[in-house]
Design brief:
single chain, alpha+beta, Ribosomal Protein L22, Chain A, four-stranded mixed β-sheet, 7 helices, 24% strand, binds coenzyme A
């Protein structure tokens, strides 16, 4: 099991859709979502959680009401009652993504925007900076950035592992970076010990919500 799903929000969630999805997640997370200042942050946080739940239910056959998410001391969510399913979530702009696997995983998606290369010099190692400067530097910046973030998220210790403390070009027999997605707007990398690339599905949020409502009526209660 090694699957990535990428949701794109092409038309904004209606209040009705938002209200339909909200009860699918924990009361604690609902509380957190209600406190967001910006709707986009609330929407992305909600969709990330629901997406993870849907994918875990699909992969395990478990019912959503039996899924309990917990977080480690650095905030990385995990499935509390199963050591065999791992997931990670990332969101940026109108993209929400989730990876699930049978071992630890990290994922990062970023919008490709103009970059300030001072950030590369500050957060990247010299070999990473050299790589960024040597080609299409906007794309390469986000390529390196999403690899680094996915590695940090794989490890799950947040920024206790600092970005300049490792290079994505260091040979590492344990982990591999997989490009899950890229287009003109965004790029996404996954970090894992898995030796085969993940399967990747891209879906728009309207289709996703339709399938949820259907599943909810069936068994996602
Ligand atoms: C929190 C962090 C793990 C990722 O943050 P991010 O890139 O802003 O956000 P993403 O959308 O990729 O990921 C958010 C999700 O990661 C998950 N997450 C949270 N803490 C995590 C951790 N320690 N490890 C792995 N995943 C984590 C959660 O599911 C979270 O989703 P939620 O907020 O909807 O619950 C962390 O690496 C971070 O703070 N990064 C910011 C880097 C930074 O500040 N760099 C400074 C340069 S300007």
């Amino acid at each position: 099991m090694f699957e990535v799903v990428i949701l794109t929000v092409m038309s904004e969630l209606t209040q009705n859709e938002f209200d339909t999805l909200l009860p699918l997640i924990s009361l604690e997370k609902q509380e957190r979502i209600r406190k967001f200042h910006f709707f986009q942050d609330a929407r992305n946080c909600l969709l990330g959680d629901v997406l993870a739940r849907v994918e875990i239910c699909r992969a395990t056959g478990l019912s959503n009401k039996h899924l309990e998410f917990s977080v480690n001391s650095y905030g990385k969510p995990f499935l509390a009652d199963s050591s065999h399913v791992y997931f990670n979530i990332s969101h940026a702009g109108h993209y929400i993504t989730c990876v699930i696997a049978d071992e630890s995983v990290g994922i990062d998606i970023e919008l490709i925007k103009p970059v300030n290369l001072i950030i590369a010099e500050r957060f990247f190692t010299p070999d990473e900076t050299e790589y960024v400067m040597a080609g299409d530097y906007t794309f390469r910046f986000y390529e390196v950035w999403t690899k680094k973030e996915s590695r940090i998220k794989w490890e799950g210790k947040g920024l206790h592992k600092t970005l300049p403390s490792f290079s994505v070009f260091e040979p590492n027999e344990q982990i591999t970076y997989y490009e899950a997605f890229h287009n003109d707007e965004a790029i996404c990398h996954v970090c894992s010990k898995k030796q085969i690339a993940p399967s990747v599905r891209v879906s728009d949020v309207t289709t996703f919500i339709r399938s949820i409502v259907f599943s909810y009526e069936q068994n996602l209660d």
